[in-house]
Specification:
Layout (H helix, E strand, L loop, with lengths): L4 E3 H8 L3 H19 L11 H11 L5 H11 L6 H16 L8 E2 L5 E5 L4 E5 L3 E4 L5 E7 L8 H14 L8 E5 L4 E3 L10 H24 L1
Parallel strand pairs: 1-4, 6-7
Antiparallel strand pairs: 2-5, 3-4, 5-6, 7-8
Length: about 220
């Protein structure tokens, strides 16, 4: 996944990582870019895609997340450690969220987009949004963050919520939640109020990552 075309969750993961982890992530991106340029085949799909599909099915009552997680782990032992942790974190959040109404939740309007940042010749992908219509007919949108480290902080959540609002301006900002799935913790603008300088912070973070990546690439080529 090139740094100039990256998912929001991956960008937040790298941008708020410790220096050592951040450099390791950027070097991984450099290796992937080189492999792609050399014609290497894609290494595979998103590790978390299967889990998130099951979590969404659980919300709408078509699957049980305990059962589907057990099936995913049985089919691929690489999921043995993280998938149960993700399941437990998601269900902690969901058990609180669903108390809002006794009525069934319905699938809400699908939302996905790519937010272009011309000044950096880059775009941020906003996909995999859990779109929920509650019993009163209100729509809510949950964007997942899966990383073990770093934990999603309020500062990171603010930038994520700002980007979601910019990328999908037709949705009222209070309808978004950014969910740290592993920890079962969600942020909205209530928990992480925007301060007005999120655009500057976001651009500074993103530009800094590109600059650091370019520096690491030059060092590797010397």
């Amino acid at each position: 996944m090139p740094l100039e075309s990256i998912s929001l969750r991956k960008l937040l993961k790298i941008g708020f990582a410790t220096p050592n982890r951040r450099r390791a992530e950027l070097r991984g991106i450099i290796r992937q870019d080189r492999a792609k340029a050399a014609g290497a085949a894609d290494e595979g799909g998103d590790f978390y895609a299967g889990f998130w599909a099951d979590a969404r099915a659980h919300v709408f009552g078509t699957q049980d997340l305990h059962e589907s997680t057990a099936e995913r782990v049985a089919s691929n032992r690489n999921r043995q450690r993280l998938y149960p942790l993700l399941r437990d974190g998601f269900l902690r959040w969901w058990s609180t969220y669903r108390r809002r109404t006794n009525e069934p939740f319905q699938l809400g309007p699908s939302q996905r987009t790519r937010f272009e940042i011309p000044g950096l010749a880059s775009m941020v992908k906003v996909e995999s949004i859990l779109s929920i219509t509650d019993g009163s007919g209100s729509h809510h949108y949950v964007y997942p963050y899966f990383a073990e480290a770093p934990e999603l902080s309020a500062d990171a959540a603010k930038l994520g919520l700002w980007l979601l609002g910019q990328a999908l301006p037709e949705i009222p900002p209070e309808r978004f939640q950014l969910l740290d799935v592993l920890r079962g913790r969600a942020f909205s603008i209530t928990q992480a109020p925007l301060q007005g300088d999120e655009e500057q912070q976001f651009l500074r973070m993103y530009a800094g990552l590109i600059q650091e990546r370019d520096g690491l690439r030059r060092l590797a080529e010397e």
